[in-house]
Write a structure and sequence with these properties.
Length: 181
Amino acid sequence: MMTHEEIVPAAKPAGPGLGIRPMRQSDAEQVLAIYQAGLDTGQAGFETTAPSWEGFTAGKLAHPRYVAVDTATGQVVGWVAASPVSARPVYAGVVEHSVYVHPGCQAHGIGRALLEEFIAASEDAGIWTIQAGVFPGNTASLALHDKLGFRVVGTRERVGCHRGLWRDVVLLERRSAVTGQ
């Protein structure tokens, strides 16, 4: 598996050199390395270690699931995927998503491109609510979600102890414009 140190040197793809496509099994190493790099920041989630590819795919919906790729190099520079919030049929259209961008490529619109593609595909797939939980200190993620129509539902205070600190989580959701929810 690629280590965090192996992926840090990547550079932002230039302009039209960014492609968004469905995630494939062949993306596993790069996706998990980006995931681990995000977890290493302490601002991306409660986990401290990215799962195996089998664990990752078992916990995520098969569609919609995308990667952003530097078209010149083929390198994966970000990903977005979602998990169902419940197995109960009434929640079939409600997911919790994650979006991660390579640390060397952040602040260049890659997260936005991924999330826009994910939102469109979610609506096509009959998903009416996209949820997210974001640490209050992850201001870039909060701003991105705000720009794309997510609203703050509330804050769960001291929901979990992470790296020795009790952390709050800002709950976000976006309702589909298609269903009028």
